[in-house]
Amino acid sequence: MTWNITIDNIGGIQHAETTLENGVNAVRAPNWQGKSSFLYALETVFGTEKRLTENATEADVVLEVDGTKYYVELKRQGNTITKSGNPYLTDDVDLECADLFAFLDETNEIRQAVDRGDNLEDLLTRPLDFEKIDEQIAKLKTEREQVDSELTRADRAADHLPALQEKVTQLEADLEDLHDEWETIDHEPTNENDAQEELSSLRAELNQTKRAISRHESSLETAKDLLKEKREELEELEVPEYEDLEAELSKRQDELDAVRADRDLVGSLYEYTNRVLEQDRLDLITDLSRGVLSDSFNCWVCGHETNRDDVELNLKNLEDRLEQLRSREASLEQNVEELRQKQSTLKTAERKERDLTTRIGELEGQVSSAETDLAYARERRSELEVEIDEVSDTISTTEDEVTDIRSDIKYKEAELEDAQKELKEAQNEAGQRDTLQKERNSLSEEIETLRTRKERVKRDTRDAFDSALDDILDRFDVGFETARLTESFDLVVARGGREASLDALSEGERQLLGIITALAGHEAFNVADRLPVMLLDSHAGLDDTHIHHLVDYLSTRVDVLVLTAYPEYEDFEGHEISPMDWETVSYDSDTATAAP
Length: 596
Hints:
Blueprint: E1 2-10, E2 13-21, E3 23-28, H1 35-46, E4 58-65, E5 68-77, E6 80-86, H2 92-101, E7 103-104, H3 109-116, H4 121-125, H5 133-184, H6 193-236, H7 245-278, E8 288-289, E9 296-298, E10 305-307, H8 308-392, H9 400-430, H10 433-451, H11 453-475, E11 482-485, E12 491-495, E13 498-500, H12 507-524, H13 527-530, E14 533-536, H14 544-554, E15 560-565, E16 575-577, E17 583-584
Parallel strand pairs: 3-15, 3-16, 7-14, 14-15
Antiparallel strand pairs: 1-2, 1-4, 2-17, 4-5, 5-6, 8-9, 9-10, 11-12, 12-13
């Protein structure tokens, strides 16, 4: 499979056209040649990113896979970048899973959290927030209630089968006795034969009408009782009233997205600057003058002369701002979750209100229909009784016995036909019990699976972390014996038989643990089934041998692995991508400003 990609104005890339192949795809080039921007472009067309080249007003990425075209267009409107098109991923859960567990660049939140030593539970379970588990459970419960109703009717039908079978058997015997009696009497045709035939038919119809009246009365009583029950249930139902809930939720979600984007932007700036200071590589980005007390240099942003102390002070202020944004993000997340709970409660109540209103309407129709049918049947009974009296007066006494037996036979035949039909319907309904019970069990299992999904995901994530760690440790010579995710999702490592601080690990070891942690989520949420692509960037802490071991391992987890590579790395077994023919901006293309 070949993935054809066209990029315009993404990050530091003004225009590029290239392809991806199944397996390993290495974007090989020195710094500032658009390697990271290429990954940003992929993330854009997959649906999670929007980085527009500075000073550009429009951008787009087009991806063609097996004749299917995906594309995303970006437009700058003031300080905001809007996104439209047909991205590869559209489902919220898929997008979140890809961003957390498949796009392993320097902005990956899990890698950053591991590097900081943060608790990882919220990040590793975040996709669950988008699965709307409560709504799924409510829908399945409604389905199960319907199955329960059908199962109750089937059970009642099964319990009633012996009585129905006995009734059919008795009617067959009664009909046989009537036929025997018919054979013993003189029933030769007379001049009154037509009247006798009419009288027999009228009596049979009268008996059927009386039985119909009994059925209608029973159905009417049942429908009225159920209608009263549903009306009381509707009256007791409380539908909460929230003013402008959808607008408030949308507003808070937009605020949360904006704060997250700001946090990512500030976090990236902080991480970049802090890394330069920690590794003492100011000389990479500005002219450095070494001094006895302090080094001086020109700020690489504004060009004014400054020193390390001032930069560290500003960096501390930036760190404080980052903490403020994280605090605001946590507050907004809680606010959004509370609003979603209100939304779920409101929707459940509204759905219940709609269902009850619909059911009440159906029952009102049943009551009206039953009352109409009952009134008609009673009227017909009165008419038949009058007709029977009139016809009876025209028939001689000697013919009464023949007429009575003929009427009884017709009535018994009709009664037997009804009983046989009722028996067959009950047998069919009772025969559904096994199917209905299996369906109910399946729904209950789905409900229980959803109820325990978070704990199961957490367990699967820890198991996947242990498995990936074992595989990685077999390939890497690291300075710690083992690592694990605790039940509370803190990452702890052991060195020299004792627990060690993550700060004591090398940059490469922390990078490796960040990737392993992301892989645990990748496995727990089956991300490879959602997106057959993984992106890897910012692995400078790993040497050539280690990065090749890591690539070999990751390439077994997905169909397509895309990574950035420096020219000095040995060749990878796969598809090499060179950005030398791409049109890139002249400034630092891999650190282009992220969209707010």
